[in-house]
Amino acid sequence: MAQTATETHPAGAATDGAVVAATELTRRYGQGDTAVDALRGVSLQVRRGELSAVMGPSGSGKSTLMHILAGLDRATSGEVFIDGTAVGRLNDTELTRLRRKHIGFVFQFFNLLPMLTAEENIVLPLSIAGRKPAREWLETLIDKVGLADRRTHRPSELSGGQQQRVAIARALVSQPTVVFADEPTGNLDSATSEDILRLMRESVDTFGQTTVMVTHDPRAAAIADRILFLADGLIVRELPRSDPADVLAVVNELNAR
Amino acid sequence: MIRVALRGLAGRKLRSALTALAIVLGVAMISGTFILTDTINKGFTTIFTESYKNTSAVITARSAISSSNSGAALTGGFPASVLDKVTGLPDVSAAAGSITDTAKLVRRNGSTFGTHGAPAIAVSYQPHEERFNPLVLVAGSFPTTSSEVAIDKTSADKEHYKPGDTIRVIARGPEKLFTVSGIVKFGTVSSIGSATIAVFDLQTAQQLFNKLGKFDVVRVAAKGNVSSSKLATEIRPLLPPTAQVRTASAQVKQETKDVGFVGIIQKILLGFGGVALFVGAFVIFNTISITVAQRMRELATLRTIGASRRQVMASVLGEALIVGALAAVAGLFLGFGLAVGLDKLMSAIGIDLPKSATVFATRTVVVSLIVGVAITLLSALRPALRATRVPPIAAVREGADLPPGRLAFLGPPLKAIVTAAGIALLLYGFFVHGIAVTQRLVAMGVGALLLFVGVALISAWLVRPLASVLGWPATKIGGSAGNLARANSIRNPGRTASTAAALMIGIALVTSVAALASGIRNTVHNTLERTFVGDYAVTSPDGFTPFAPASEKALARVPGVTAVSGERVGDGKAFGNTVSVSAVDGDVAKVIHIDWAQGSDATPAQLGANGAILEKTYAKHRHVGVGGHFSLQTPAGTKLDLVLKGTYVAPKGPPAFGSVIIPQRTFDRVYPQPTNLFEFVNMRGGATDANTKKLKVALADFPDVKLQTESQFRKNQSKFINQLLALLYVLLALSVIISLFGIVNTLVLTVFERTRELGMLRAVGMTRRQVRRMIRHESVITALIGAALGIGLGFFIAFLVTQALKKDGIGFAVPTVSVVVFVVAAIVAGLLAAILPARRAARLNVLEALQYE
Lengths: 257, 853
Fold this sequence. Notes:
The structure holds two protein chains of two kinds.
Chain A: H1 2-8, H2 11-14, E1 18-29, E2 36-47, E3 51-55, H3 62-69, E4 77-82, E5 85-86, H4 92-102, E6 103-106, H5 118-128, H6 135-144, H7 160-172, E7 178-182, H8 190-207, E8 211-215, H9 218-221, E9 226-231, E10 234-240, H10 244-256
Parallel strand pairs in A: 3-8, 3-9, 6-7, 7-8
Antiparallel strand pairs in A: 1-2, 1-4, 4-5, 9-10
Helix pairs in contact in A: 5-7, 7-8
Chain B: H1 2-11, H2 13-51, E1 57-61, H3 72-75, E2 78-79, H4 81-87, E3 92-98, E4 100-102, E5 104-105, E6 120-125, E7 135-140, E8 148-152, H5 153-159, E9 166-170, E10 176-186, E11 196-201, H6 202-208, E12 214-215, E13 217-222, H7 228-235, E14 243-247, H8 248-257, H9 261-294, H10 296-304, H11 309-348, H12 362-388, H13 411-431, H14 437-470, H15 472-489, H16 493-531, E15 536-539, H17 551-556, E16 561-574, E17 577-584, H18 588-591, E18 596-598, E19 611-615, H19 616-621, E20 629-633, E21 639-648, E22 660-663, H20 664-670, E23 675-683, H21 689-698, E24 706-709, H22 710-753, H23 755-763, H24 768-804, H25 816-843, H26 846-851
Parallel strand pairs in B: 6-11, 8-10, 17-22, 19-21
Antiparallel strand pairs in B: 1-13, 1-14, 2-12, 3-13, 4-6, 5-9, 7-10, 8-11, 9-10, 15-23, 15-24, 16-17, 16-20, 16-23, 18-21, 19-22, 20-21
Helix pairs in contact in B: 1-11, 2-8, 2-9, 2-11, 2-12, 2-22, 9-12, 9-16, 9-22, 11-12, 13-14, 13-24, 14-15, 14-16, 14-24, 15-24, 16-22, 16-24, 22-24, 22-25, 24-25
């Protein structure tokens, strides 16, 4: 089925001008009577240097969408293209290569390696790929995320906000084509959340880092250049950059339906 | 990634240390075995080499029946004229003749030094032949008169003999009194084990051992540039048929060959090391598997930030590699300590062998390191492969399952196949006739290995039923904590199964050994009871070293004695093989029950000069019937033409006689130094205290023999089985200890994993004591599962062995007491293993545990 979908949407056409593109994604969990359709035909395009937010209530399919976009999960049908590469057809080795070059992750629970220091965590993607970090870039980055005096601390010695900063730096260090952030403020208090959101916005503005963020927090969505609203496995609304109040209004409206 | 592995280890010190211990002990066993046996071997070779220092060629008495050197004492030497002939050769620079025989030293309390099968060496000394003398004086001087003896340092130290003291020595017949002239030691050898040395002046030695005008050994030194082999070639034509010549190096090689049993000891000990490593492999496999399961999110995160499967695998294997290497190094050095322990253990059952300074060979290092690292890596392989299957999405999703591997569908049949293959190999090893010993041993070893692995795999299915039965007491004793413990033990059946499997292996081996031992003990007991029907038995103190028969006459003179019958033993060559020869007198049937096939209790008295008795089947296979002739050659070269006068059926179990039975008179005529294995006495009134006293008085001059009533004799004869059993238990205990670390490890990891749950239990009112109890019960249930599986498997293996040995009369017997002891031991083991994890669990801070993410 995946094949049929990609044939009708050749790579060139689907990814025109976009670094991340999805065509008619569906995802079904389970079989028969108990089957659940998490996605029911989602198409989207993310342009270079853009910060997109995917919003939706729990169960809307937004996490599934991000997992599929990031190559963590496979679509039942439809295809995802990252920098022109059809992700669904890649084998494990090719996916690994894709992740090294094109994808960065920011997680809700930070997912730092507890035995490594902050700096070691940050450069880990590069060392895994067998590359050496450019000293200058690393300094800029550590400066940017404000961890200059925390480099040798272990995650357990850092606050939640600081841990998420380490995670963001880790996502940025390899200058990937796209960073996927999964509820980056979901596990933080509101003051810290604001810091983190500012940092993410700045990374887009300063480094032109293309970013896709999944969130259910209207204030988080408000930093995005574009907000996609997901409900019942479909994109139901799209907003350009908006105030939190406007975002909340749409959320409420969708919840009311 | 290497850093990830390294740091991971540093962050999990306790776990890594416990994992490493599992391998440390196994490697220590391997390295300790090598160190000990190398040291013993070096001790022997040093003795042999020093014995022939400055010697080019050695002339020894020739045994007519084998090339072995041990016959020297039994042959009576060769004419001393050989020395003159050899000295006359132009290529000879020096030559000296000497006597080598056996003489027992007597302790101050009147008993002989027990040598446990090691030689009680007697050698001669000549003042002007110092260059050939391997012995070094520690105190005093070498003997120069017929009343002097020099003795070895170990014996002197044991009984505080000093030069000038008097000591009794038994050479031939009753003991004789000597003055200690000096204390000697064997060159650079640090211990000669339980052997003793008595040095006599040459003439005295020749007299003592009835070798006037004879030598046992002539050492020859060649002139400057003459090669040893050339010298040997020149000497050979000069020798009588009772003597042979070898180059010194060939002689050393020959004597080294005679101590090949050290190699067997080495193999046996290595076998136990192998078992320990096998158990260790289970522990490591289990620990790493659990670690991988707990680190799923971490590993998945690594995948999302670009780690390849290969890198994930490398990080798990890297961790194992480091643990294995550190453990191997630690084990290597712990081996020194273990070598000392093993030596003590063997000495305790009477195996005390010569030793040089400790030998630490390169081979020991190489093998220990390779084995330690390889076993660890092998056990880590499967968990490492599983780790590669951790999907990246597990980084964001709680409780993501591992996708089944490509070969997962093979799982259940594979488990059955492994088990079946194990059993099949065992059956092949035990019951198929006509295969080589090595092949048989390999089949049995690999079979047992597969069987253990197979049962460990299958046991995941058995955990649930076993836990519900074995956990029942826990629910009664432990209340809700016990209930939870039982439920916890079946939460992850695979994990419980492989933890229990480690213990299962140790218990299975211990059980099968116990079952076999009780079978063998029964057989031995029954046979001895049926066979030995005299009132008293006389043996050497250790029960198996032959002794001079002179005490027979003393016993015969005791009033009330109705029969004295000694059984002589010696080697001979019959039907093309070296066989053991027993010699009996006419009274033998009064003290030993003989199950006659042809002949009667009167037959032994009617043997005449050349009659013989053979075991029925033995005779049949060699096609000799009663009245038929066969020949027997003695070590000294005499050829006897024997007539078969009777046959008997040997009992199952320990035989009372050698292969060939000949009359005592004939034996004494053709064997230069006859020795008895047993002497039996019948007395009017049987074994009573008064009779015992009378016999003891008669034996006062014979400190090298021990008087026992028949029942004491039977007990002593089976004592060795108990000692051997104790030795095996101690050696197998190592494996059990390792499996304990496995239980500790699993529980520690489980407690860590259930931090949150434990916090919740505490929050809803569970006391620390209840938490500890819960962990303890889970530990005991796991141990009991291991014990149940192990005891079952042990019986199965013992059953196979007894079936295979049925014709030797070894029956299957359930060692009830031992089994109860093992179950209790398993419970204690479970309690011990739970101490640390239970303490950790109870120490948890409720609040932190609940917040723990």
